[in-house]
Design a protein that fits this description.
380 residues; Hypothetical protein af1432; Rossmann fold; two-stranded antiparallel ribbon; 8 strands; globular
């Protein structure tokens, strides 16, 4: 299945046709940018120039076709959230947060197109980190950030995207940006993570390195025998209940939906009482070192991190299971559920849908639920 919602060009796109075809492209047209950094014009003009610059880069041309498509999709989508994030502050045009929000919007666009999960998530990581090569070398945590990026996408691909981003603009510091990109490449090369994920001694070592600052990434954390908590994640209707019934039928389950019913709490609004009740049940299992599953949408990293911190404080080993269903079938599945979720509510969830990445737990698995469950990627 093709990744892009439009063909990979061998020459320049028919940009006017693309503008007519996609609303997210139309939104970039006429979205202003700070002329100090983008004297070329609006966001869509910049994206045009970035894509055309990318096509001319020998390092992009030498990639296998599937990898070219990933980097090109990221170039097309890298500023997709600027229209939503653009503000005027103290007389300057800014778009704070557009990289992180752009990754979420790119995920929704590519999910709706039916893109492959692994390729899609590499694109989303490139969008999320596309500004990092411009300043990573100046950060005190440069090594840690390079290693984090390498777990989600290729740093070499990020350097290619950043080079096209720098060439696709008119600004006074273009040569300075290109120099910093070169330093980013050299740092990643030195860390052995330019074109591959940095190899941690063990999955637990990887998890602990990103969980606690100041660790040596080469330190081998020895795992002691422990109990396991499965943290489910996924949109309503993706199949979390069914996955647990098929793959962990004997495991106790803490279900936020069940607790809401018991408490008579609505599914919208403040969920504090529901969460507190669920955590108290979790502590009962944690104190007795009993394995269990926590079943909820858990759509954001912040929510997952709070839960993982609770579980690991009791020395539980955490496995994250992310479940998703194709866009064309998800809303049909929701309509057939006994506990229905309104379509507008799901669309709001998509605005914060940040799926788990390999740095969040010792084991992270992505499953696609079509007519049956298919393991798409396992990080352990």
């Amino acid at each position: 299945m093709k990744l892009l919602p439009c063909p990979l060009p061998s020459a320049q796109h028919d940009w006017p046709a693309l503008t007519r075809q996609f609303d997210w492209i139309r939104a970039m047209k006429d979205c202003p940018q700070d002329p100090i950094h983008h004297a070329e014009g609006d966001v869509w003009i910049h994206v045009n120039l970035v894509c055309e610059a990318l096509l001319q880069l020998p390092e992009w041309q030498s990639l296998p076709e599937a990898q070219r498509e990933i980097v090109y999709a990221a170039a097309l989508l890298h500023d997709v959230s600027k229209p939503a994030c653009t503000r005027v502050e103290d007389g300057r045009i800014t778009a704070r947060g557009h990289s992180q929000q752009g990754a979420i919007q790119a995920r929704r666009i590519l999910w709706e197109h039916g893109a492959d999960i692994q390729a899609r998530e590499q694109v989303c990581a490139l969008v999320r980190y596309h500004q990092i090569p411009f300043y990573l070398i100046e950060r005190p945590d440069a090594q840690r950030m390079a290693l984090r990026i390498s777990q989600q996408t290729r740093c070499g691909h990020l350097a290619i995207l950043a080079k096209a981003d720098a060439l696709g603009r008119i600004c006074q510091d273009q040569q300075g940006l290109l120099l910093k990109i070169g330093l980013f490449e050299e740092l990643c090369r030195e860390q052995a993570c330019l074109n591959q994920a940095w190899k941690f001694p063990s999955p637990l070592s990887r998890f602990e390195y990103f969980r606690r600052e100041g660790r040596d990434p080469s330190y081998h954390v020895h795992e002691t025998p422990s109990f396991e908590v499965i943290l489910m994640a996924g949109l309503p209707g993706s199949g979390k209940d069914t996955w647990l019934a098929q793959h962990a039928p004997s495991l106790p389950v803490i279900s936020l939906d069940d607790i809401r019913e018991e408490l008579g709490a609505p599914p919208t609004g403040n969920q504090g009482v529901v969460i507190q009740a669920a955590k108290e049940r979790a502590r009962t299992y944690l104190r007795t070192r009993t394995s269990f599953a926590w079943n909820a949408t858990n759509l954001t990293r912040d929510i997952r991190t709070q839960l993982i911190d609770l579980f690991t404080d009791y020395h539980a080993r955490v496995k994250i299971i992310h479940i998703e269903a194709p866009a064309h079938s998800l809303f049909h599945r929701v309509d057939k559920r006994e506990r229905q979720v309104p379509h507008p509510a799901i669309k709001r969830m998509l605005e914060r849908w940040d799926i788990p990445d390999p740095t969040e737990a010792p084991v992270v698995e992505w499953w696609l639920n079509k007519d049956s469950f298919e393991l798409q990627a396992g990080f352990s």
